[in-house]
Amino acid sequence: MAIEDDEKKGQHGTDIASTASADIVPIDISEHGTMKRALKPRHSQMIALGGCVGTGLFVGTGATLALGGPAFLLIAFMVLIFLVYIIVTAIVEMVAYLPVGGASLSYYGTRYVSKSLGFAMGWLYVYSLGILVPYEITAGALVIDYWDSPVNVAVWITIFMVLIVSLNLLPVEYYGESEFWFSTIKVFTIIGLLILSLVLFWGGGPKQSGILGFHYWKDPGAINTWLVDGAGGRLVAFVRTLVLSAFPFTFSPELLIATSGEMQNPRKDLGKAANRFVLRLIVFYLGTVLAIGIICPSDDKDLVSSGSNAKASAFVVGIKHAGIHGLGSVVNAAILTTAWSAGNAYLYMSSRALYALAISGQAPKIFLRCTNRGVPYAAVLACSSFGVLAYLNCASSSSTVFTWFVNITNTSAFISWVCCCIVYLRFRSAYNTQGKPELPYHSWTQPYGAWFALFFFIILTLINGFNVFFPRQLSASSFFTAYIGIPAFMVTYAGHKLLKGRSDPLWITSDEINIWEGLEVIH
Q: Which portions of this protein are annotated as coiled-coil regions (predicted)?
């Protein structure tokens, strides 16, 4: 089975096997089957927006609000939205120039920098995105406790695992359609909560006796201190708020690229999806943190005492303060849908990253196997094995396990974004050196924005777990989960370099980077 016939490839893009160069060693995939381009623009746009809107936005922001206060939370999200915008525009410019079916960003790392970097990036995506699957599965199981369910949490974890894996084994058009509707539910939930927050702002709640306004910015206050007092404590609180606020954004730019391999017209659709994606981040993400800062006091004990369940959601706490009965259950149901949807998206991304590695000869050939409808079932089943980590919650505190997942994921996301900047800058260097071919998409922020983001995310990677160095804050598990991603990535890179890439340069020179091969197929 082929992705498209030659004529259709000319319209929609090319596949990874047809863009082989000296830097890529593709495998013959004809005997295994290939993925299909079956995602429509509305699918890819909503998946990129809603797919990664997980419990981090609805629940995780509550704990971050308690730590930093509403002003620091809002500022942190503004900074991160701008940085994510830079990442999105950089990688979309690069991928829209040469969209490759079945490829993740690791493919471009191989093509534009080195095989060792591409190898390390690919496995980074496989394990870090795979870890997010049990995170969301656990979240979905735990929010059910809002209704004080007598059923053991392990049962709910199993149900969620079966549902997520089953959906990912269906043809991609079913996945795309289901994610479209899941994301639509989440978007309308956010819109409804924003409208509710506006009503509460003007004092429309049953228990409110006047205009609420920015009352909670005055009492308990707009900013908090953390670990130490005074100006130093405010600085520490802001830095920690900035680090934790990155979690809702993790791998959302990469998800937009992951769907490009199955877009019907990626050269055209990617640019549109990128612009709309960033606009929706501003409206929904920034609107959400502004809303919770208005309706929820940052010193409410439920924000931190409940750990990692729906009772810790700032929206649920705000609804309780307003005296609205029954609405908390509705929000909880939306959070449940959110966890399921995000788990679907992360398994989708992890399996496609593994499939891309197998195509490039950097993972066992067994992961190339696809159904006759184009589903890489071997990769899906392998990546779904990460889901068993969700059962850690049966033995340890859920809040502790959640903290481990957040630390590991943040480090991986920061490393990924650093690599994205490096790969893009090498692409731009080759682009400038080799005659500046026409780009189907370009942003005003590039290439200087990539340099800024590169520096910023290197810093965030190094300070991800900085709090463990404060007195009485040292924890072996916190330190390990916050920083294990750095040596893991370096060992993966160095191992490939020593075993497979001794004769390869550290990076391909600008005049030797192949930015032309494959263009003849899509023009």
A: none
